[in-house]
Amino acid sequence: MPVRGGGGRRGLGFRGGEWVFAVVGLPFALVGGGYALAVLYAGALLSLTVLGLPFVVAALLGARGLGALHRRLVGRLLGERVEAPAELSRPAGLVARGRTVLTDPVAWRTLLYLVLRLPLGVLGFVAAVALPLGCGWLIGFPLWGRLLEPGARPAALLDAACVLLGLLLLCTVPGAVRSLSGANRWLARMLLGPAGAQRRVRELETARATLLAENTDQLRRLERDLHDGTQARLVALAITLSLAEDALAPTAGPDLGRLRGLVGRARGQTDDTIAELRRLTRGIHPVALDGGLGEALPVLTTTSPVPVTVRLDLRERPDQAVERAVYFCAAELLTNVAKHSGAGSAELTASAAGGRVRLVVRDDGRGGAALGVGTGLTGLAERLAAVDGVLGIDSPSGGPTVVTAELPARL
């Protein structure tokens, strides 16, 4: 996922880095565009010779290098962090390696980027340099006219029109530079990053690694809780029952008072053990989900210390894995509301229709929630990605905070 940087300080309505990119980027655009056009032209000419395929393989490798250079340039000056594509695999044998390069979508997309970057680079230089210079010439036209024609020269309508036109065009410079910078950002995101399939594979690999790590941690916690908690309670219960058995057969007859106390203690230990087992199994599969989200979510909100209004529109029942993801997502978000938001009230809205599930948690707290600030939202987004879900956060400083999770109803 691309990350937008802060960029430089804004001047005249656009970032300083955008103007630098428009000026400095022209030579890179000319070199890159010329390279791409030369590769395509020479590759077509050499395609019927033995030199054709080796030339195209070398050219595509060079295109990958130019793509990396342009990614750094876009990231440094425009603040658009474009994720680097995966490295090329290196199979054994020259033929296999050549086939890998020729079928590499990243290299071909980079060539297309270099071709499209050429006119954008020219337009950017015109907007950032030529247009302001032209505006300066128009604004100073009356002065240039007097310098070129010494002597008395009456003011003409042409002088006023030139000044007005120059000022009007000068006002369009920031918007033009900003628009062309946006086009360059979009082009870099679309063509210089990983291909759609590669990006999807990488997201799934990250989500799988996250889920495996979380499942491993959960199993370790469960094992530790069973060993240190439930097992210890069962051992204590067994000892109590052994003492009760001893109290039943003393030489002087049963000690009913002691026996009654031991039975009471055993009952208490049994109740504690059952409660402990329920607590542990609730984290594996909430019993409330047996009746679907329509029953589970209202029960979940009753445990929140912050009053929660529930609005449900569940026209279809999602897959069990999706229900679990929505349930634990709602639990995590309500926990964040209680611990971090300082909110006085919250609202939970869930809908399932048209093959999509949407969960929205809104609170009137202080705001400022974001990925990576210690509220567990990053891990939550990664868990949702494992079921093709996305997490959206709108939390300005001062609130309110609105967190939206969208998932497919069927996997």
TrEMBL record:
<keyword id="KW-0902">Two-component regulatory system</keyword>
<keyword id="KW-0472">Membrane</keyword>
<keyword id="KW-0812">Transmembrane</keyword>
<dbReference type="GO" id="GO:0016020">
    <property type="term" value="C:membrane"/>
</dbReference>
<dbReference type="InterPro" id="IPR003594">
    <property type="entry name" value="HATPase_dom"/>
</dbReference>
<keyword id="KW-1133">Transmembrane helix</keyword>
<protein>
    <recommendedName>
        <fullName>histidine kinase</fullName>
        <ecNumber>2.7.13.3</ecNumber>
    </recommendedName>
</protein>
<keyword id="KW-0547">Nucleotide-binding</keyword>
<keyword id="KW-0418">Kinase</keyword>
<keyword id="KW-0597">Phosphoprotein</keyword>
<dbReference type="GO" id="GO:0000155">
    <property type="term" value="F:phosphorelay sensor kinase activity"/>
</dbReference>
<dbReference type="Pfam" id="PF13796">
    <property type="entry name" value="Sensor"/>
</dbReference>
<keyword id="KW-0808">Transferase</keyword>
<dbReference type="InterPro" id="IPR050482">
    <property type="entry name" value="Sensor_HK_TwoCompSys"/>
</dbReference>
<dbReference type="InterPro" id="IPR011712">
    <property type="entry name" value="Sig_transdc_His_kin_sub3_dim/P"/>
</dbReference>
<feature type="domain" description="Histidine kinase/HSP90-like ATPase">
    <location>
        <begin position="321"/>
        <end position="411"/>
    </location>
</feature>
<feature type="transmembrane region" description="Helical">
    <location>
        <begin position="118"/>
        <end position="144"/>
    </location>
</feature>
<keyword id="KW-0067">ATP-binding</keyword>
<dbReference type="InterPro" id="IPR025828">
    <property type="entry name" value="Put_sensor_dom"/>
</dbReference>
<dbReference type="GO" id="GO:0005524">
    <property type="term" value="F:ATP binding"/>
</dbReference>
<feature type="transmembrane region" description="Helical">
    <location>
        <begin position="44"/>
        <end position="63"/>
    </location>
</feature>
<feature type="transmembrane region" description="Helical">
    <location>
        <begin position="19"/>
        <end position="38"/>
    </location>
</feature>
<dbReference type="InterPro" id="IPR036890">
    <property type="entry name" value="HATPase_C_sf"/>
</dbReference>
<feature type="transmembrane region" description="Helical">
    <location>
        <begin position="156"/>
        <end position="177"/>
    </location>
</feature>
<dbReference type="Pfam" id="PF07730">
    <property type="entry name" value="HisKA_3"/>
</dbReference>
<dbReference type="GO" id="GO:0046983">
    <property type="term" value="F:protein dimerization activity"/>
</dbReference>
<dbReference type="Pfam" id="PF02518">
    <property type="entry name" value="HATPase_c"/>
</dbReference>
